Amino acid sequence: MAGAGAALAACGSSGPGGDSNSGGKAGTASYWFLTGQPGEGIRQTAAERFNKANPNNKLEFTAFENDAYKQKIKTAIGAGQAPTLIWGWGGGGLKSYVDAGQVEDLTGWFGENAAVKDRLFPSSFGPATVGGKIYAMPCETVQPIVLYYNKKVFEKAGAQPPQSFEEMMALVPTFKSKGIIPYSLAGKARWTNMMWLEFLLDRIGGPEVFQSVFDGQKDAWSNPAVLDMLTKIQQMVKDGAFGKGFSSVDAADNADQALLYTGKAAMMLHGGWTYGSMKNDGGDFVSGGNLGWMNFPPVTGGKGDPTNTVGNPGQYLAISSKATAEQKETAKKFFTSGVLDADETKAWINDGGSVPVAKGTEAILGASPDAAFLKYVYDTSVNAKVFAQSWDQALSPTAAEALLDNIAKLFQQQVSPQQWVTNMNQVIGK
Q1: Angle between helices 39-53 and 325-337 (to 10 degrees)
Q2: What are the sequence ranges of the domains in the chain?
Q3: Which of 94, 254, 324, 418 has the most crowded Cβ, counting Cβ within 10 A?
């Protein structure tokens, strides 16, 4: 979601373009990743540490700004000149690489290296899996979507955190009667609305419903759980659950977060990444203990497991099928000894303020000033039966654009639930 720009830096690059067939020793593997601190520094330091320990299996790394990277990696893969290590978000993008035969099947390798797989969150492997086979190594951090609430607002209203979706809806008139927006929502940004659909569909129909969409099954959106979810969303809008002017609230300037920490809204469904910005911008809202958080509660009679979550289960490293045998060996050695080693894991926690997708970090997380929230993110992520990837990342770019467009129309009451289903069925598999 970062801005546009050109390639920013070529860090430690010893060959021309960093593609799989660039110069250097036979075992040198090319690796492209994103700029922007603290992530860029953590990635670079991890690669340098690996190079120092493996002089005969080095990584040649290059950093690109977000949008420039997306374009360059797409072009390189299309030309059969991808870097050895392909950094990405898994899901729809990875599936397109798999369909084109551009990435290695790692299922057997993970079977032979069970210890590597066992030290990562099981839920992080969902977006790395296509057709039941693993095509990427989960790496970096996890960011589930969280239901936040303002404890002070709840206390003043004499309300308790909701334990079911029905209780969530029952709180709407309670807060409206006091002039408080029940749920802060930056409706100007379409993807923020999407988080409500993701959780509701899981809680009503279970993860299999969206999985069938991802798998490209014909008319998968016609599942009755989808109509139920869409109907509930439009009822929330009609009931004023998001306030009257939610469609003009902008996520780009964190206006939705401000409504929560100033007490103008009672709750907010948003990504784990908003914790840090609320801590920075909200005065003593976080440090004073007024921020509460929880997983999205169950829907009565729903099929979804209440431990399930949605969001970003991790980032991913695939291996180019066009790389040489030596380069592939270097990449796999990096998976074994470099990715999320002890130093990198600490860096993501202490410098990045995030939870790595590695198990066994409770002690480091517990020493953080944000220990309570980080432990919640860790527990939610590691215990989730299913950690569903954000829909706009899981689907192809074509289907994702149609999804976001129809979600905006749904919240504005411009399409009926049935029209929404019809529109979305038309782009399944595209």
Answers
A1: 110
A2: 29-140+314-359, 143-310+390-425
A3: 94
Nearest to 332 by CA among 112, 3, 25: 112
Does the pLDDT of residue 9 top 60, yes or no? no
Q: Could you give the angle at the alpha carbon of 345 between the alpha carbons of 343 and 350, nearest 5°?
A: 90
Please identify which residue in the block is written with the tokens 């639930």. 417
Average pLDDT score over the chain: 92
Q: Cα 298 from chain centroid? A: 21
Task: Decide if domain 29-140+314-359 falls under CATH 3.40.190.10.
Answer: yes
pLDDT beyond 70 at 5: no
- Give the number of other CB atoms < 10 A from CB of residue 154: 21
The β-bridge partners of 14 are none
User: How far is residue 27's CA from residue 317's CA, in Å, rounded to a whole number?
Assistant: 18
pLDDT of residue 8: 29
User: Which strand (E) or helix (H) includes residue 191?
Assistant: helix 190-205
